[in-house]
Design a protein that fits this description.
single chain, alpha+beta, Beta-Lactamase, 5-stranded mixed sheet, Diguanylate_Cyclase, diguanylate cyclase, PAS-like_dom_sf, Nucleotide_cyclase
Length: 319
């Protein structure tokens, strides 16, 4: 077929577009040798096309995830199908510096990768084209939105004063642990506790002092519990702690450590130094329970016994 001025002009136009389009274009043959390396790739990789054309891509860029990318390229050749990956699956293919001022809070460019087959004249798949797209701005928007959603989710589950779980969220954890026990049979214990004579604190020192007492005792609970334990503010000055995979004996050690730690607190509010104690009740989960609320009620009964017995102590529910 004879070339005409029009076809030559169209070819130059196409080549100009390929060179100047704001995405990375890389064409590979079956041996993964580079056939096209456009200006986007030159600018961001600091590697001129003449340095890579005709050479193995993985030898030119050993930092590439070779095994993973080779399998992607091979699948396009074999299946004659497109392949895709997003920044959420792999943040970038090549570590290109992020150059957009609006997104300067990240060092590297987030990238989406598309691969599609290029057919020869006889219909066979001769080459694969890779398109690398800079999606940094939209990725950062997604990340910021996810962070906001996570923060809102945390706020919806957390008591603002104590930074412990609120009652609804904590009870949901109690129910989950109750169902886990039904499956595994591994014992856990529930501790309910409240602050002794808390009304007297509010009446004597004011509600701000009362809030500070609650904050300090909540912090002491967090310091005393294990990472696997789950604490929450049940209401007012009452708290609950799920001691995961701890029997009543293990829960007793926890309660004594927490009781002693609270008794040693020196809580300062304004000109006042306040000393408080707590009373606690323990219930070890059992096969006789049919509802998780029975577990809460039993630990609450043990707590009531501690208060009736003089406060500043713990008791285990005995049935």
């Amino acid at each position: 077929m004879k070339s005409t001025p029009d076809t030559i002009e169209q070819l130059h136009l196409l080549l100009n577009i390929l060179q100047n389009v704001d995405v990375g274009l890389v064409v590979l043959d079956r041996d993964c040798k580079v056939q096209l390396w456009n200006r986007f790739m030159e600018n961001h990789s600091n590697t001129r096309a003449r340095k890579v054309i005709g050479k193995d891509l993985f030898e030119c860029f050993p930092e590439l995830p070779g095994e993973w990318l080779k399998s992607k390229v091979d699948s396009v050749f074999v299946l004659n199908n497109r392949a895709f990956t997003t920044w959420k699956q792999r943040p970038y293919l090549l570590k290109f510096s992020n150059y957009r001022p609006i997104t300067s809070q990240v060092e590297w460019m987030y990238q989406n990768l598309s691969l599609f087959p290029l057919q020869a004249v006889d219909g066979s798949i001769a080459q694969v084209c890779m398109i690398i797209t800079d999606v940094t701005e939209s990725a950062l928007d997604d990340i910021a939105l996810q962070a906001l959603n996570d923060e809102l989710d945390l706020l919806s589950k957390t008591d603002g004063l104590t930074r412990l779980l609120n009652r609804r969220s904590w009870e949901a954890e109690v129910e989950k642990e109750f169902l886990r026990f039904a499956r595994s049979g591994r014992a856990s214990s529930l501790v309910m506790l409240d602050i002794d004579h808390f009304k007297r604190v509010n009446d004597t020192y004011g509600h701000q002092a009362g809030d500070e007492v609650i904050r300090q005792i909540s912090a002491t609970i967090r310091k005393t519990q294990r990472d696997t334990d789950i604490s929450g503010r049940y209401g007012g000055e009452e708290f609950g702690v799920i001691l995961v995979e701890s029997d009543a004996e293990g829960a007793s050690y926890f309660c004594e450590r927490l009781r002693a730690a609270v008794e040693d607190l020196h809580i300062v509010s304004g000109e006042h130094e306040i000393h408080c104690t707590i009373s606690l009740g323990i219930s070890e989960i059992s096969q006789e329970m049919t509802l998780y609320r029975q577990w809460v009620e039993q630990s609450d009964q043990a707590l009531y016994l501690s208060k009736e017995s003089g406060r500043n102590q713990y008791n285990v529910y005995r049935g």
